[in-house]
Amino acid sequence: MTEHTKIEAERKSLFERAEDMLSGRKYVPAQVPRDLAAPVNRRPVVRAAQKAVPQPVAAPAEPAAAPSEPMHFHEGKLHHIDRALLARHGLIQPEAQVTALFEEFRIVKRRVLASVRKAREAGSGAMAQRVLVCSPLPGEGKSFTAANLALAMAAEKDSEVLLVDADFAKPSVLSLFGLPRGPGFMDVLANPDIALEDCILSTDIAGLHVLPAGNHTNSDSEYLASSRTAEVLDMLTQGSPGRIVIFDSSPALAASPAAELAHHVGQAIVVARADRTGQGALEDALTLLSACSDLKLLLNAAHFSPSGRRFGAYYGPEA
Questions:
Q1: In the sheet where 295-300 sits, what is the strand order?
Q2: What is the arithmetic mean of pLDDT over 274-303?
Q3: Nearest by Cα to 258 from 166, 148, 143
Q4: Domains of the chain
Q5: Which residue pairs, CB below 8 angstroms and at least 24 apart, start in 179-183?
Q6: What is the structure's pLDDT at 205?
Q7: Which of 32, 213, 235, 319 could form a disulfide with 171 if both were Cys (CB 3.0 to 4.6 A apart)?
Q8: What is the DSSP letter of 79?
Q9: What average pLDDT does the segment 244-268 reach?
């Protein structure tokens, strides 16, 4: 019987086996032609010895357009804001003692103003001065937030604020402040013959102006999506770097104006109520507002602070 034994394979590395295969063979490099073909799709090089071709004389540049004049709001007629009405609605009292509410919105406005400065430095222009305030659903405090933010912003020494009621279906800014009804934002969008400055109400609170919502139409979103909107908003901020425009918009999941306005603002504040707003609604609202690059969340009706901070009492009378 034939005996079978295992044949041990020769253990060589890959390089050693390649050397064995190529050893003893002579390789000659490929011949390179003396004259190479002319390159294609390439412009001929102009030599210095060639005669220069005269270039046409450029037409004189047009003079730069003069900067647009800023829009000055009518200061002659000041509309009185009912302070007692502000108190009934739980809003900031401009001349009263500093409260916890005022201190909270001081923090909010500092964040907003810091974002405005950062956006302007990045070259976003007047859009940085526009702030959208909305909520996912009704009843979560977006008008309360917009009004208090405007009142807190009006206290700034180097800026003024314009509060625009952009909740066309259910406007509330005039009723919060006790201001008279009249033409407003939607009327200016729908009718170019209506002067924007004639619709703005200057108030007896220094630095605070209000633009009503105007008459509701069946085409609010279509007017907001038109090129007229950008023209009107540019008029509000042109030549006035210290002016902040705050839009109290409709809830994002209840009506479409908020999503349209998101294309024209530098930042948006989405108000979520601690005891009401669901995670799904909040995520859907943020998706609809994604045209705005700077989205901020504000938690309303929160009664617990992990740090135990309590603003306002520090400014009270001494014991």
A1: 201-202, 208-211, 160-166, 243-249, 130-134, 267-273, 295-300
A2: 93
A3: 166
A4: 107-302 (3.40.50.300)
A5: 179/79, 179/81, 179/203, 179/210, 179/212, 180/79, 181/212, 182/212, 183/212, 183/214, 183/215
A6: 95
A7: 213
A8: B
A9: 96
Tell me: pLDDT of 43 over 60.
no
Residue pLDDT, tens place only, 180-233: 999 999 999 999 999 999 999 999 999 999 999 999 889 999 999 999 999 999
Number of H helices, E strands in the chain: 11, 7
What's the average model confidence in pLDDT over 141-149? Answer: 97
| Structure letter (DSSP) for residue 301 | S
Q: DSSP readout, 257-271?
A: HHHHHGGG-SEEEEE
pTM score: 0.75
Query: What is the helix, strand, coil percentage profile of the chain, to 5?
Result: 35, 15, 55
Of the candidates 104, 188, 114, the residue with the CA atom closest to the CA atom of residue 144: 104
Indicate if the pLDDT at residue 318 is higher than 90.
Answer: no
Which SS3 state, helix, strand or coil, does residue 208 take?
A: strand
Start-to-end CA span in the chain (Å): 116
Cα distance between residue 154 and residue 105, in whole Å: 12
Nearest to 169 by CA among 219, 211, 209: 219
